[in-house]
């Protein structure tokens, strides 16, 4: 796992912020020990604060893994609230199902199995919070769906946006195999920071977290009469 912050800072942050209690805390410790890529503890705490403030009813997550963050997010839902979570990796989902049962959250967490690129198109929402924590190279492709599924006042939280800090380096100073992802993430970050309907902040903790608040409706572009005629 890559981090923007150094080992000393990570160790310090983890020493001042307690791990979660109950079965959720056990799942967190097991996942860390097994090197399952769940959100780092300091990002989990950021999620807790954001969800306490946002008070979502329905949450969408892209990237379930073993259902640690899905279980965490359930703590901030009202009685009737739900987390819908997408993952394409059956091996992870097997553990996720076991963990959801351990937490007694079978009625709160709905797993959608498959590629988010296909599933997102079928969803109608709205989701007050969307937590995107999946393949970074696809974030830009997922973005229009997330923006469609978020109501005005909704919050998009995106994990792992800074590639261990290498995003700040020039394209040619990162290893060749990382250049495509580097370019895609930079394009994604440019889009969310320049989007007219979003108020965005990029926070350098964990591997970088982007927060995008949807402040107004997104009006689909309409074609002028000339453009319509030319297209005919
Ligand atoms: C970083 S892990 C998610 C961790 C989880 N949110 C947590 O903190 O507990 C990323 C997950 O996204 C899934 N994933 C990556 N790309 C995906 C895609 N295009 N569609 C569905 N799932 C995807 C992977 O299988 C993996 O389980």
TrEMBL record:
Biological process annotations from GO: tRNA methylation
One Gene Ontology term of the molecular function aspect: O-methyltransferase activity
Domain of life: Bacteria
Binding site for S-adenosyl-L-methionine: 39, 69, 87, 115-116, 133
Source organism per UniProt: Anaerotignum faecicola
Protein's UniProt keywords contain NADP: no
Annotated keywords: Methyltransferase, S-adenosyl-L-methionine, Transferase, tRNA processing
Function: Catalyzes the methylation of 5-hydroxyuridine (ho5U) to form 5-methoxyuridine (mo5U) at position 34 in tRNAs.
Transmembrane spans: none
InterPro entries associated with the record: Cation-dep_OMT (IPR050362), SAM-dependent_MTases_sf (IPR029063), SAM_O-MeTrfase (IPR002935), TrmR_methyltr (IPR043675)
EC numbers: 2.1.1.-
Pfam families xref list: Methyltransf_3
Subunit text: Homodimer.
Reactions the enzyme catalyzes: 5-hydroxyuridine(34) in tRNA + S-adenosyl-L-methionine = 5-methoxyuridine(34) in tRNA + S-adenosyl-L-homocysteine + H(+)
Keyword tRNA processing set for record: yes
Protein name in UniProt: tRNA 5-hydroxyuridine methyltransferase
Similarity-based family: Belongs to the class I-like SAM-binding methyltransferase superfamily. Cation-dependent O-methyltransferase family.
């Amino acid at each position: 796992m890559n981090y923007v912050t150094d080992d000393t800072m990570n160790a310090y942050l983890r020493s001042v912020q307690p791990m979660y209690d109950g079965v959720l805390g056990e799942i967190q410790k097991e996942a860390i020990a097994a090197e399952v890529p769940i959100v780092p503890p300091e990002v989990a705490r950021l999620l807790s604060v954001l969800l306490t403030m946002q008070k979502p009813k329905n949450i969408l997550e892209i990237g379930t893994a073993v259902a640690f963050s899905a279980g965490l997010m359930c703590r901030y839902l009202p009685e009737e609230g739900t987390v819908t979570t997408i993952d394409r990796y059956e091996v992870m989902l097997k553990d996720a199902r076991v963990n959801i049962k351990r937490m007694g959250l079978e009625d709160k967490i709905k797993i959608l199995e498959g590629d988010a690129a296909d599933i997102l198109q079928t969803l109608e929402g709205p989701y007050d919070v969307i937590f995107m924590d999946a393949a970074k190279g696809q974030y830009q492709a997922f973005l229009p769906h997330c923006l469609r599924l978020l109501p005005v006042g909704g919050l998009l939280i995106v994990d792992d946006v800074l590639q261990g800090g290498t995003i700040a380096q020039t394209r040619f100073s990162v290893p060749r195999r990382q250049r495509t992802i580097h370019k895609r993430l930079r394009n994604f970050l440019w889009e969310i920071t320049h989007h007219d309907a979003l108020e965005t902040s990029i926070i350098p903790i964990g591997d970088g977290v982007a927060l995008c608040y949807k402040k107004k409706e997104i009006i689909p572009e309409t074609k002028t009469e000339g453009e319509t005629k030319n297209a005919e």
